[in-house]
Amino acid sequence: MDLTPVVNSFVSTFLYIIPLLALVIFLKSPFMKGFFGEAIVNISASLLLNKNDYRLIKNVTLPTENGTTQIDHIIVSRYGVFVVETKNMKGWIFGGPHQKTWTQKIYRHTNKFQNPLHQNYKHVQTLKSLLGLNNQQIHSLIVFVGDSTFKTAMPANVTYGFGYIRFIKSNLRWVLSEEEVERIVDLTKTGRLTPSFKTNRDHVKNLRNNAREKQIDNLCPICGSQMVLRVAKKGPNTGNKFWGCSKFPGCRGAVTI
């Protein structure tokens, strides 16, 4: 019995399956999840925010003292500068403003991830320094996209889907003039590193190096300053020791012991 046709058919099918499997794996990768999440925010901002009032700047990488920081979206308007961090996640999301890590739960699987408000803090501080803004002129904004549900109460600046549009439009007081808006847009574009694969690769390398240094030097997970051993003076943890940021109360970074 000649099995050649069967073998050839199997080989042909197998050759089709390999690229399809590679494509599925690529589409489910963290890179593509981030890409799709940012694309959703980009498209909705373009469609739902008046371009004459709101200026969108995407994928901004800025130099810092210890490397770089990368911002998903910056929306500039007379109502302030909105620094947007995007999270494309599914499952139940648990977290609070002052917690170091939040929790993602998918059925029986539990995953810890960095508090996005803390993550966005560095972005906000870097922009404030670059642009010379005060706290009333800049806003931290977190946007979750994907099939996720908040299971704990979230602050107003942690939103899901198009909720970030409502948050932006809820700011009705002018805090910047048209001239200041133009200045901020120009400074941001000239101060950013050129968007490229190399810029992204170097940024990831800096993140890894900084993570190693924080583990060794006991630096603040929020702003990178040195941590100081403290004792809780009130609340349910009264008398317990913890590591607190040396820049308290300006920074409230803390790590339990």
Order of helices and strands: HHEEEEEEHEEEHHHEEE
Molecular shape: globular
Total individual domains: 2
Q: What is the helical fraction, as a range of percent?
A: 25-40%
Oligomer: single chain
Number of strands: 12
Return Rg in Å.
22 Å
The strands making up the biggest β-sheet line up spatially as 1-2-3-7-9
Biggest sheet architecture = 5 strands, mixed
Strand content: 25-35%
Q: Could you say which structural class the secondary elements and strand pairing correspond to?
A: alpha/beta
Count, helices: 6
Write down the overall mean pLDDT: 81
Q: Give the CA-CA distance, first to last residue.
A: 72 Å
Low-confidence stretches: 21-28
Tell me what you see in this structure.
The chain folds into two domains: 26-200, no CATH class; 219-257. It has six helices and twelve strands. The protein is globular. It is α/β, with parallel strands linked by helices and 257 residues long. A hairpin with a 2-residue loop joins strand 2 and strand 3 (80-88). The strands form three sheets. Strands 1-2-3-7-9 form a five-stranded mixed beta sheet, with helices on both faces. The model is unreliable at 21-28 (pLDDT under 50).
In short:
This protein is of the alpha/beta class and 257 residues long. It has 6 helices and 12 strands.
